[in-house]
Amino acid sequence: MNIHNINLTLEGIESLVYNHYGEAGRLAENINARLEQVGYENQGVNERPDLVVLNQTQMPSVLVEVGFINTDADNRLLDERFRETARAIAEGILATVWSAA
User: Fold this and answer.
1) How do residues 6-46 score in pLDDT, each as one tens digit?
2) Which ranges constitute the DSSP H helices of 20-71?
3) Average pLDDT across the chain, whole number
4) Which candidate, 17, 24, 41, 61, has a CA 20 to 30 Å from the CA of 55?
């Protein structure tokens, strides 16, 4: 799990995976769905096979872009609802693990 706050012209959250299909894709979808409930705009799950943090792992991996630092609303949401944001990520992980059991 890798969590970032980036500077782009978007709002909300985005999750990046090596391959959208399989466990990493389900994990990313579950995390995004929980973060959307916190109030973030869901920019979806996108494949980025060029990222070392995703393509050099032996397990499902997700890079979660939580908020865009050039967006006041995202900064405020992350500051004011940090615990809920962290909990949403954890709940997305747990939902994926429990559904695989």
Assistant:
1) 555 678 899 999 988 889 999 999 999 999 999 999 999 99
2) 23-38, 52-55
3) 87
4) 41
β 63-68/13-17 pair status: antiparallel
Contact indicator for 27, 96 with CB cutoff of 8 Å? yes
Q: Residue 86: left (phi > 0), alpha (psi -120 to 50), or beta?
A: alpha
The tokens for 63 are 């890079």
Strand pairing class (63-68; 2-6): parallel
The pair phi, psi for residue 18, each rounded to 5°, is -65, -45
**The pTM is what?**
0.87
Q: Are 2 and 65 in contact (CB under 8 A)?
A: no
